[in-house]
């Protein structure tokens, strides 16, 4: 029989091997939702309350619960900051409730239309420039850095979750961007 020190080493190696094999079969993923979707409604009659909203009976949903028309219409940029955000969230598309996505059209006035510094505490933003030229940026927290870039039509930029960021139209023409949020 081996020494007690050798036996402890064998037991440790055996335990480590079993753990490694167990972890190799494990997979990490987001849990499946309890339902396919939860179309938000204001009327609680015959509804289920999920994520701060009442859910419409799935048998009563329609294509209109999952769509929006009018994102092609420019927003009014005649204000102090020279921008307008048309947000498509659960209030405009009830079918996005609990799906973890939203979208926005942002219109910018020429020569300085600004989406002022702001944060999204629960979402990463991805911005697609459709018209204009933008100076964009965000500030990191660890280490403290300022990351910025000039974007042109067709360019995309990502603003990480919870970081202060902005967009500024430096073009002499109107600017339009689409922002997606998780």
Automatic annotation (TrEMBL):
Q: Which residues form the Cupin type-1 domain?
A: 69-180
From the record, give the cysteines joined by S-S bonds.
Answer: 38-55
**PROSITE patterns given in the database record:** GERMIN
Its name, as the record gives it, is: Germin-like protein
> What does it do?
May play a role in plant defense. Probably has no oxalate oxidase activity even if the active site is conserved.
GO terms for CC?
apoplast
Q: Tell me the leader sequence span.
A: 1-28
Alphabetized PANTHER family for the sequence: GERMIN-LIKE PROTEIN SUBFAMILY 3 MEMBER 3 (PTHR31238)
């Amino acid at each position: 029989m081996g020494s007690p020190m050798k036996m402890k080493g064998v037991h440790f190696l055996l335990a480590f091997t079993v753990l490694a094999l167990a972890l190799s079969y494990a997979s990490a993923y987001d849990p499946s939702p309890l339902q396919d979707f939860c179309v938000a409604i204001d009327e609680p009659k015959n509804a289920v309350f999920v994520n701060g909203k009442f859910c419409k009976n799935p048998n009563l949903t329609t294509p209109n619960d999952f769509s929006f028309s009018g994102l092609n219409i420019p927003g009014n940029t005649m204000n102090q900051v020279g921008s307008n955000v048309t947000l498509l969230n659960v209030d405009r598309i009830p079918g996005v409730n609990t799906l973890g996505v939203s979208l926005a059209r942002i219109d910018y006035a020429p020569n300085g239309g600004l989406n002022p510094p702001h944060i999204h505490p629960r979402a990463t933003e991805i911005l697609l420039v459709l018209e204009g030229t933008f100076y964009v940026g965000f500030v990191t927290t660890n280490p403290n850095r300022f990351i910025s870039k000039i974007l042109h039509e067709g360019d995309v930029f990502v603003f990480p979750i919870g970081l202060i960021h902005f967009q500024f139209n430096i073009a002499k023409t109107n600017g339009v961007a689409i922002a997606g949020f998780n």
